[in-house]
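User: Hi! I'm working on a homework problem where we have to compare a predicted structure to a textbook description. Could you give me the structure for the chain below?
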Amino acid sequence: MTDPLHTELLRLAEEAARRAGELLRDGRPADLEVAATKSSPIDVVTEMDIAAEKLITSLIAEHRPHDGLLGEEGAASAGTSGVRWVIDPLDGTVNYLYGLPTWAVSIAAEQDGETVVGVVAIPMRGETYRAVRGGGARVTDARDDERTLTCRPTPPLDQALISTGFNYVTEVRTHQADVAQRLIPLLRDIRRGGSAAVDLCDVAAGRLDGYYERGLHPWDLAAGDLIAREAGALTGGRPGERPGRDLAIAATPGVFEPLQRLLEDFGAWHD
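Assistant: Happy to help. Predicted structure tokens:
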């Protein structure tokens, strides 16, 4: 039986993601400009990132005023309920800035430090992904058809399609490019989509055999990681660790371990 609290959190996350996705899709100014930068001049924030986070956090505060918040664009409060929301209002901001379709709204709810609900809306695909811990993962498409998510059957590593991402700090992305160069001959191919949340959902949906990236924050990971795991993927970081800033990996069960081993051998987590 589904926990009534988890059902409540899921419904609220779905509503917040839907509203924020509509705002971002329908309200994007033709003359959209960078509002600020973060880790480097190419790590950008737009006015729409800020507006979407405000919409999400206001809706959550209206319905659950005692919950904690952690948002990419600055929302941060401890809360007193044992529930914390981890929010990326616009994952794939550079894609969004350039008018590319690969961006998402990512909302997760943690209970006592464990992610229990994850929702990722990908408005330009018309898709919404959702998962509840222990309850599987599902996606609704643009026709409102819903299906259960299952990751792909495991291929040999040299037939695996893997996605990754690159940091916005020059020295870090240069090292990441070196790692990718060493991996490419050992795989079917590598993709670079530009949104961690979308890549994790694509692993869940069977569109990718695996995904890895270094330098992710909790808001990049929380919802998509749960969705991938509930679809049958394995997720982690360096051997014996959970996914985090050093390294995040999600892959079909037979691809996960050899990919993790290669990334460790190639020093994918190094500064």
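For your comparison, note the following. Helices lie at 4-26, 47-63, 93-98, 170-183, 196-204, 218-230, 253-265. The mean pLDDT is 93. Good luck with the assignment!
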